[in-house]
Give the backbone structure.
Amino acid sequence: MDDPILHYALHCKGCGARMLLPVAMIGWLFAHPDAQPNHSHAIAAVCRFCKSVHTYFLERDSPGHAPGNAAIFADPIHETMDGPMLGCGKEGCQALVPLFAQWTPGSTKEERKADVETWRWVHLQCPAGHPIAKPDWELS
C-alpha cells in the first residue's frame, strides 16, 4: 500500500458519501493569485456513488464551505482524474471550476466512459451561483 498523502475530505452534497481528493493534484491549480478570475478556490467533484456533480469551496472562510470538509492524511485508494476547466454559462461571468472525478484502480477506459454518461449535472454552479451546464466534453 502507498504511504498516506494529504487529501481534501469532502462530503457529497447529494448523498453524504466521503470523497478523498489529493491536495497536490488540486493545489497547483490555485498556486498563482490570478489563476481564478473570481479569486475563488472552488472545484467541481463527481460522487462515485450518486453520480451528482457539485461545486465545493475549499477555503474555510468562503460562505459556500461546508464545515465538515477538511484536509486529512489518508491512503490513496482511487484514481483521480483532473478533468477540464468548466466555464460559467452566464454572459460576463468569467468563473472557471476545475472538474475532478475518481475511479477504482484498474477500471478500463470503456468503463470510465460509461460512468461519465451517468453523471448528474443539474446541481453544478459557478462560485457566483450561476448554473454550469453539462459540458460538451469526452473522456480521453
About this structure: The two ends are 28 Å apart (CA to CA). The chain is about 10% helix and 30% strand. The CA atoms of residues 125 and 131 lie 4 Å apart. The longest helix spans residues 109-116.
